[in-house]
Amino acid sequence: PTAVNDSYVALKWVGDHVIDIAGREVPLIVAGDSAGGNLAAVMAIRARDNNGPSIALQVLIYPATDADFNRPSYTDPENQLLLTRDGMIWFWDHYLPDPSCRSEPDASPFRAENLSGLPPAVILTAEHDVLRDEGEAYSSRLQEANVPTDLQRYTGQMHGFFTLLMLHGSELGFQQVVKAIKACIVRTAKAQSTSNKI
């Protein structure tokens, strides 16, 4: 998909210009919500497989990870809110009209054969979201591949809660993500300090 190719070009550019952008070496983090979470997960896999930029953390907020519309979270009537099963089918029909391409890892990272060696992940899901089950299934696959993974399901929340600033879950989600990013920065700084002493 064009979105994947464009994202990877941008990721490589940022990886090549970190010091120009930040003024010093800083960890590279990929993050996104919903379709952006899909792209962030795919970027982590692409970077690993293509000797791309070193990614320190992936933050996946209710990510789309698998084009399977028959998971329980898709068929639960209580989850047909801001994002619906029909809406997701429409999105996939426009993103990848050929259903046979949707099982490719560049589209459905859950379907990637090997998830080992990926950067640590923070995954947020919402209780009332059609994407809940695939996000949590992706978390399970990452853990099975020994990728450090922090999964948090936000009870009572729906798809989009992270950016709906009037919702209490949004503030909690932001706090979790900020905490994870700060920890990543500290961890990376310590690792760089240790390597500089060697």
Name the shape in a single word: globular
Number of H- or I-type helical stretches: 7
**Structural domain tally:** 1
**Main sheet: strands, sense, barrel:** 4 strands, parallel
Task: Give the strand order, joined by hyphens, for the main sheet.
Answer: 1-2-3-4
CATH architecture field = 3-Layer(aba) Sandwich
Structure overview:
The chain has 198 residues and is of the alpha/beta class. It has one domain (2-197): Rossmann fold. It is 47% helix and 16% strand. It has helices at 2-16, 18-22, 35-49, 72-75, 85-95, 132-144, 168-197, and strands at 28-33, 55-61, 121-128, 149-158. It has a four-stranded parallel sheet, sandwiched between helices. The protein is globular and about 55 Å long. The model has no long low-confidence stretch (mean pLDDT 96).
Task: Record keyword descriptors for this entry.
four-stranded parallel sheet, 198 residues, 47% helix, alpha/beta
Outline:
The N and C termini lie far apart (43 Å). By secondary structure, the chain is α/β, with parallel strands linked by helices. It has helices at 2-16, 18-22, 35-49, 72-75, 85-95, 132-144, 168-197; strands spanning 28-33, 55-61, 121-128, 149-158.
Which helices and strands, and how do they pair?
Layout: H1 2-16, H2 18-22, E1 28-33, H3 35-49, E2 55-61, H4 72-75, H5 85-95, E3 121-128, H6 132-144, E4 149-158, H7 168-197
Parallel strand pairs: 1-2, 2-3, 3-4
